[in-house]
Amino acid sequence: MTGFDRARIMDSDDIRRAVTRIAHEIVEKNHGTHGMVLVGIRKRGLPLARRIADTIERIEGVRVPTGALDITLYRDDLQLRTVSQQPIVRPTEIPFNIDGKLVVLIDDVLYTGRTVRAALDELVDFGRPRAIQLAVLVDRGHRELPIRADFVGKNVPTAGNQAVQVKLSEEDGVDEVVIEQIAEAAGGKVPRD
Amino acid sequence: MFKGKDLLGLETLEPEEIEGILDTAESFMEVLERPIKKVPTLRGQTIVNLFFEASTRTRVSFELAEKRLSADSVNFASGGSSVSKGETLKDTARNIEAMSIDMLVVRHPAAGAPHYLADCLDTRVINAGDGSHEHPTQGLLDVFTVRRRLGGIRGLRVAIIGDIAHSRVARSAIWGFRKLGASVAVCGPTTLMPVEIEKMGVDAHWRVEEAVEGADVVMVLRIQLERQKNALFPSVREYAKVFGVDAAKLSRAKPEVLVMHPGPMNRGIEIAQDVADGPYSVILQQVTNGVAVRMAVLYLLSGVEEPKAELVG
Questions:
Q1: Which domain holds residue A119?
Q2: CA B38 to CA A122: how far, in whole Å?
Q3: A43 preceded by cis ω (within 30°)?
Q4: Is A142 on the interface with B (CB under 8 A)?
C-alpha cells in the first residue's frame, strides 16, 4: 500500500460488532460457559476481555471470571534492550485457580505471536488449564511462531513497515483501529510494549 | 524510568526514578504470591553476591530475589577466602569479573567501595551497604513499605531513632523519604548523632518523645552493643530507658503509626518487646517487601549497554 500515513480501518461501531460476534463465537464453540475464564493480556487485552465478559453476561446470564496477565517478565527480547528501555512491569491479577479450566486468552493485535507465546508460558506457571483458546480483535499476519487465533475480529493484511494501533476508550479515550506507516525495523521486528 | 548502570545510593536518584522502582516492585509482590514463585526474566544471567561484611537478612533476600528471577546466584563471603590471604578488593573483583558475570551485589565496610568497583569494572554494581554511607535497597524497601501501607509518602512525618551516626540505613532512608516529600526527624544520644545532620534536610531532636510527636512512621535503628565499650553510651540499661522505643514514647505518635526496624533487633533495648510484636509493627512486612524491591532493582538494571535491535513502535 502506498500514499498514506495513517488510515482508520475500524471505527467504534465496527469494534462493538466484532466484540459481540467474538463473544457469541466463544460461547457457541464451547457449548456454553462451563469452567470458562477470560484472561486479558495487558494492556489493551484487558478492556477487551471485560467487554467480552459483559457481552457474555448479556447473552448467557453468566458472569465469566476475568483476569489480567502482564507478560513483560516472560518476553524473549529483554536482553535486547538498554537499561532505560526496560519495559514497565504492570501487575498480573489471576484471582482464581486455572487448573482444569478453559482459559480464553484475549489480546488486541496478533502479529508475530511472541506475546502469546509469553502468555502461554506464564499461564502454565499458574496451573494446568484443560484448554487455552485465543481471541484477538485484529490478526495482522506475519507470524514468527506457530501460533494461531481461535476467534478473530478482523483479518488485516499488513506490511513490515506498517503498525496496527488499536485504541480503546478505557485506555485511549476513543474506540478505533488504525494502520500507520512507520520506518522499517533495522535488526528485525521487536514487538512493541 | 531508572537511568543508571549501577545502584550505588539514593542520594543521586531523582524522585521519578524512585517511584519507578517502587511501581515495579509492586508488580513483583504479586509474583511472590504465585504457586510457582519464579519468572524467567533473568534466565542465563549470573549475579555474584560479594559480601565483605557479615549479613544474613540482606544476603538471603538478594539471593532469593535473584533465584526468583531465574538468574544464577553465587555467594562470596570474605571470611576464609582470598581476601584473608591479602588480596586487594580490585583484584578480587576483577578475577570474578573475568568469569563473565552480569552483576555484582557488594557489601563492604569501607564507604565508597561499590563506587570504586563500578568505576573499574564493566559489570553492573548494586550497593548492599558500604560502611556508614548508604544501603539503597533498604532505603527503597522502607519507603515502599510505608507507601504500600499509607498510600503515599508526601507530607508524612518520619522519625528515625537510634545510632544515626553509624547508620547507612538512616542515610538512605533520609534520602528516599525526603525525595518523595516526607519530613524526617532524627533522634539519638548526642554521641551518636552526626554533627550538622540538619544539612541533610532533617530536624534533629535530642529526646525521643519530641522526635516521635505526631509521627506517621517511627523507624528504630539497632544499637550496636560494642559501641558501649567505646564509651559512646554509659550502659545498655540507660540506653534502653532513655532512647528505647516503648509503648509510652510511641503513644505520642499518630494513632496509626507504623513501627519499622531494619533488623536484627535487640529486643528490650532499642525496641520494647510489645512494640516489636505489637499491632503497629510492620517489621516482618519490610522483610517480605525487601525481596520484591530487590527483584525490581535487578530487573531494571538487567538491560544491556547498547541496544541490539531497533524497537518498532
A1: 12-79+87-158
A2: 10
A3: yes
A4: no
Count CB-CB contacts under 10 A for residue B80: 8
Q: What is the pLDDT of residues B76-111, one digit of tens each?
A: 887 767 777 788 888 888 888 898 899 999 999 999
> What pLDDT does residue B227 have?
72
Which residues of B have a CB under 8 Å from any CB of A? 1-5, 20, 23-24, 26-28, 30-31, 34-36, 38-41, 296, 299-313
Structure ipTM over 0.90, yes or no: no
Which tens digit of pLDDT belongs to each residue from A142-182?
A: 999 999 999 999 999 999 899 999 999 999 999 999 999 88
CB distance B168 to B112 below 8 Å: no
Q: How many CB pairs under 8 A join A and B?
A: 103
Asked whether residue A2 is assigned to any structural domain, the reply reads no
Q: Does A186 contact chain B (CB < 8 Å)?
A: yes
| B41/A74 CB distance under 8 A | yes
A89 CB near a chain B CB, below 8 Å?
yes
As a whole number of angstroms, the distance between CA A71 and CA A124 comes to 12
Domain total in chain A: 1
The DSSP H or E segment spanning B299 is helix B283-301
Closest partner CB to A187 (pick from B3, B31, B308): B308
A172 belongs to a structural domain: no
- In a domain, residue A45? The reply is yes
Q: Identify whether A7 is part of a domain.
A: no
Catalytic site residues of B? 57-58, 85, 107, 135
